[in-house]
Design brief:
heterodimer, A: mainly beta, seven-stranded mixed beta sheet, B: seven-stranded mixed beta sheet, 11 strands
Chain lengths: 108, 122
C-alpha cells in the first residue's frame, strides 16, 4: 500500500498571502496525484488531478506541481473561502486508493 | 448536472447490518466506476471500495474486505453498500463518488454525494 504523508498538519497564513502544502508518497505515483478541498460539514471537492491539472471551475490561484514522490499544492492570494482542510490522494496503483491525513489551512 | 444522493445511514449495534444506497443522475451511470469513501468523525478520508461500470470488477480496502459488499443496479442508476458484521470503527460519514473515465483515472473523484452517517454503537 502506498502511504501518503502531508505536511504540515496545520498551516496558518494571512489572507492575501501564499500557502504551500506538501504531500509525499512512500513510492512513486508518477503524476497520478489529486488534491481535494473539504470545508466543515461538506463533501470534499476535487481541485487538482494529474498532479497539476485544475478541475473544472477551480480558480487559477490554485496550482499543483511535482511528480514521483514529492508534490506541492500552492494557493496564491488566499481568500477567506480557501481556509479549509486539504487532502492529497494517489491513484497510480490501486487498489487501494490512498489519501494523506490532511493539512488544515487556518487564518493567521 | 451530476447528482449523487446517499441514503440508508443510521444507528446500528455492533455486529449488525445496514445497506446504503447512492442514487445517481445527470450522467450515463453504467459508463463509470463508482466508489465509496468514508470519513470517521474528525479523521481523514478513507477509500472503501470501487466498482466498475458493469459491476463485474469490484475492489475493497483491507479494513472492510469480507464484511462490506458493493454492488450496483445500472437499470436504476443506483450504487449500494451492504454492510455486515459492523464494528464501532466503521462509524463514519459514507460518501459515494464518481470517478473519471478509464483506469487508473477512475480513482479521481470528480463528483461526490453529500454523505450518509453510519453510527455503530451499543
Amino acid at each position: 500500500e502506498i502511504v501518503m504523508t502531508q505536511s504540515p498538519a496545520t498551516l496558518s497564513v494571512s489572507p492575501g498571502e501564499r500557502a504551500t502544502l506538501s504531500c509525499r508518497a512512500s513510492q512513486s505515483v508518477t503524476s497520478s496525484l489529486a488534491w481535494y478541498q473539504q470545508k466543515p460539514g461538506q463533501a470534499p471537492r476535487l481541485l487538482i488531478y494529474g498532479a497539476s491539472t485544475r478541475a473544472t471551475g477551480i480558480p487559477d490561484r490554485f496550482s499543483g506541481s511535482g511528480s514521483g514522490t514529492e508534490f506541492t499544492l500552492t494557493i496564491s492570494r488566499l481568500q477567506s473561502e480557501d481556509f479549509a482542510v486539504y487532502y492529497c490522494q494517489q491513484y497510480n496503483n490501486w487498489p487501494p486508493i490512498t489519501f494523506g491525513q490532511g493539512t488544515r489551512l487556518e487564518i493567521k | 448536472e451530476v447528482q449523487l444522493v446517499e441514503s440508508g445511514g443510521g444507528l446500528v449495534q455492533p455486529g449488525g447490518s445496514l445497506r446504503l444506497s447512492c442514487a445517481a443522475s445527470g450522467f450515463t451511470f453504467s459508463n463509470f466506476y463508482m466508489s465509496w469513501v468514508r470519513q470517521a468523525p474528525g479523521k481523514a478520508l478513507e477509500w472503501v471500495s470501487a466498482t466498475s461500470g458493469s459491476g463485474i470488477s469490484t475492489y475493497y480496502a483491507d479494513s472492510v474486505k469480507g464484511r462490506l459488499t458493493t454492488s450496483r443496479a445500472n437499470s436504476k442508476n443506483t450504487l449500494y453498500l451492504q454492510m455486515n458484521s459492523l464494528r464501532v470503527e466503521d462509524t463514519a460519514m459514507y460518501y459515494c463518488a464518481k470517478g473519471f473515465p478509464g483506469v487508473p483515472a477512475a480513482g479521481v473523484f470528480e463528483n461526490w454525494g453529500q454523505g450518509t452517517l453510519v453510527t455503530v454503537s451499543s
